[in-house]
Every structure is written in C-alpha cells, then in structure tokens.
Amino acid sequence: MRVVLLGTGGYHPNERRHTACVMFPELGLIFDAGSSFFRVPEYLQTDEVDIFLSHAHLDHICGLTFFLHPLLSGKVKQARLHGLPRTFSAIQNHLFAEDVFPLMPEYEYIPLEPKVAVPQGGIVRHCSMQHPGGSTGFRVDWSGCSFAYITDSFINGSYTEFIRGVDLLVHECYFPDDMVEWCEKTGHSHTTLVANLAKEANVGQLLLTHIDPNRTDDDPIDIKVAKKIFPNTQVAEDGMEINF
Question: Which end of the chain, N or C, is surrounded by fewer C-beta atoms within 10 Å?
Fold first, then answer.
C-alpha cells in the first residue's frame, strides 16, 4: 500500500512544509485538505476521491477551494467529503460563503458513519480527539495492512486501543518536549508523548507530522528522543512516500 505525505506542517505553510494532506494515490483516498491539497492532481490515479476531514480548522480545509478545476474539467468525476456535520457547516457557510469563494465546487457531503468502505476492501473507522473545537482521528483496515491518521490531538490515553497494532501511524507532533506546557493549552502533542503512545499501541511504524511552522530545521521535534522510545520513527516531509 502506497501513501504520500503531501503536507506535513501545521497552522500555516512555510518554505519547507505545506499544511495537512495525506493521500493514497491509487485508491483516491485522502485525509484532510490543507494548503498542500493543490498537489493532489499530480499524484491522483483515479477519477473519484474520498476525502476524510478531521475538522474545520483552516489548515485542514483551505485546499478544498483548490479543487475547482479538476472537478470542472472532468479529471475528477466525483469528490466525496466525509466529516462531521459541524465541519460541513463551517465549509459551506464560511469557506464557501459567496463573498469568500463564490463558485462552490460540486462536492458530495457525506456525514461520517461508524464504518465506511473504501477501495481494495478497506474499512475506515473514526474516533474523537481532544482539541479545541474537536477533531477526528481515522483508522483504515485492509486485508493484510492497516493505517491510522491522528492529527490535532492532545494525547490523553483515550484512543490507544483505537490505533493498536496498525502498520503505519501518522501522528501529529507539533511541539518538542521543551514546549510541553503549550500542548494542553493548544490541543497538540509533543515528542515523548507521541513516541510512548506508539510503543504502548504496538504500531509498526511512526511518522511525525503537523510540525510547528516556526521550525524549518531538519530536526524540529528532537528525533533522537523519539527513537530512543520507539526506534521506527521518522519525521514526515512533504512529498515523502511510504510503502507498507
């Protein structure tokens, strides 16, 4: 299974990272639509897409405005959005308000169900995260492999079982440990917390994403700390591809 990290930053883009979007090109399966969403047509191998939205903060939905041309041109024949009703309300009433973006792309809005079937026999499930305004985490299980996408979350132990045993965990890590005091205030996670979660949940591989945009260096979260706890850890970069 091939997954591409199109956007690995949080809050706003910088010269190194755009904001959140994770994509399975051969399946037309996408998680979040941040500023990196403009990259989707370059990778897309299908003419239909299923886009699962974690929440309505701008760094996770602003890219939905970029998809007008693929839809109008027929390159993409159907684009289904999966999310909570309040997420859809924010998109329709604010992001696509007439004075902001007057031509609404023809998305199909599908409220999240407990289980959603996706290509190649996959099943998507979701759970709630602790984050201001709320957020949603996702897990996909196929025959022989599994994946979880957790963003914008302060880890409180509530979803360890939800992600247990996944082959690949893509998890936010906005802060290094020396900024731990900001985590609960902002609803984000720090290095040791995420690495301990991966170890406790017995996942196969951990990718750290949703990096603080003020950090543009090669090691924004102190990867040695994470690897000491959970060795199979990497910091995600825009354009990174993983086969699992």
Answer: C
Computed over every residue of the chain, the mean pLDDT equals 96
Q: Tell me, what CATH number does 209's domain have?
A: 3.60.15.10
> Is residue 166 a contact partner of residue 139, using CB atoms and an 8 Å limit?
yes
What the block records as the tokens of 34 is: 């941040």
CA neighbor of 146 nearest in space, from 52, 242, 244: 244
To the nearest 10°, the Cα dihedral for 49, 7, 207, 187? Answer: -100
Residue range 175-228, pLDDT digits in tens? 999 998 888 889 899 999 999 999 999 999 999 999 999 999 999 999 999 999
CA distances from 240 to 181, 189, 207, 236 (A): 30, 21, 10, 7
pLDDT tens profile 122-145: 999 999 998 989 999 999 999 999
| AA letter at 91 | I
**What is the mean predicted confidence (pLDDT) over 76-93?**
97
Tell me the pTM. 0.97
Centroid of chain to Cα 173: 12
* DSSP SS3 for 171: strand
Structural domain including 7 reads 2-243
Structural domain total, the chain: 1
